[in-house]
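From the pipeline queue, job 12 of 40. The input is one protein chain; the requested action is below.

Action: predict structure.
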Amino acid sequence: MSSPLSRRRFVTGTLQAGAVAGLADLGFLGGLPEVSAAAGPVLPNVVRVGSDLEPLVRLIEETPRKTLLEKVAEQIRKGTNYQQLLGAVFLAGVRGIQPRPVGFKFHAVLVINSAHLASQAADDKDRWLPLFWALDTFKESQRQNKAGTDWMMAPVAESKLPSSTQAKKRFVEAMDDWDPEGADAAVAALARSAGAGEVIELFWRYGARDFRDIGHKAIYVANGWRTLQTIGWRHAEPFLRSLTYALLEHEGANPAKRDDERDRPGRDNLKRAVELAKLPRGGKPSPAAGADLLATLREASAGDAAAKVAALLTKGVHPASVWDGLFLTAAELLGRQPGIVGLHCVTSVNALHHGYQVSADEVTRRFLMLQAASFLTQFRQTMASRGKLSGLRLDEMEKAELKGDPTEMIEDIFADISKDRLRAARKALALLESDSTQIRPMMAAARRLVFAKGRDSHDYKFSSAALEDYYHISPAWRSRYAAAAMFDLKGTGDADNPLVQRTRAALASR
């Protein structure tokens, strides 16, 4: 058992030697032959994934949680590579975890891209850690799924699939009608006949059309799509079926036949987006516009928030400056009420912004921006119903006094996160405004603390989203956005995650 992670050992290890105390050097892992385990008997009434990953998915599904890490480590030593393991744990969740509600136990799937981003940004010796954490998370979600409905994705009803020429039309009709059976058949046909870009373009709007599940629908579209790009389009069909089923989750009567407050902003914003798409692209950058939108969103309704965005774009403000206001609002809401709803302000805007970046449809792009504004007001209202929001104003937050060299400052910041998050945020603001290059060692420290101390899917989801969006916000606002991240990152005083030691032992055993 390793010794506790002290403040001094953490900073010196991360910033100088590049290793956090308690994390083993995993660089000895090398590539050997591919996985060759037999797939076993065909599972009745359960969809099969790609033949190249089916054996590994079955191993993940069927191995008890207490021995899974060791079994997977054995496969790694036999040649299973990173991409294969990423795909297998993702598809195990897609096939074996019911995506309703879109959250809770389904985080085993929602978090895979976040774990992947953390792995990609890590040192080689740490790259396996997030995936082994994701394996363990899957087993807990699998347990919860079995204790509930024991849902498993069934094979598609082949006789009900529309023709390739009718698949897109049928899919749109079924999604608009909130018809899960029709949409399931149509999306399977689409996956087999249409190109990846054409298919995913349909999902950006449907993932953002309603506020149910506090943004998790949009998060699933973005994070699932990004994972699929890494593991390959050949695995698209089960993912798209799971995603479709998730996006059609609702309460009560069919939403297509009633006017629910969670659907109303989306319907109104789609009309606005059609008009805004006629505007010329681009515009004039304006830091003041970001601050103006932030001020508006502190009090606005969902409709007024979207109207403000539309007004800024119509005046010729560059969309990047509008996104500044959206990113700042998400970060400020987190600071005003740290916790589960606040962090989803950040992860939802991250997902909507990713859709905005990659969509090729100008109406969809404008719609995602408008929905981000409306979502944030709905987040604020949800948070107010859970308790009082503080009076924090991110654009007015005062810097702390700088003391010591940058290494000492980063040490103090992550120590303060475990005791006084506002103080940590003010110190981070001071450090980054004095020297913006310190963001790199600060990010490295944040990631390695998630590896060492992260216990919840949100630790990975939030940290990956916030650290990614630092570079999406305009330079004038970056230090304040990064400072707000201190309201949910892990601190050096937080308890270590024992799974790190299990992973180290599993990978080191021969």
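Job complete. The longest helix spans residues 362-386.
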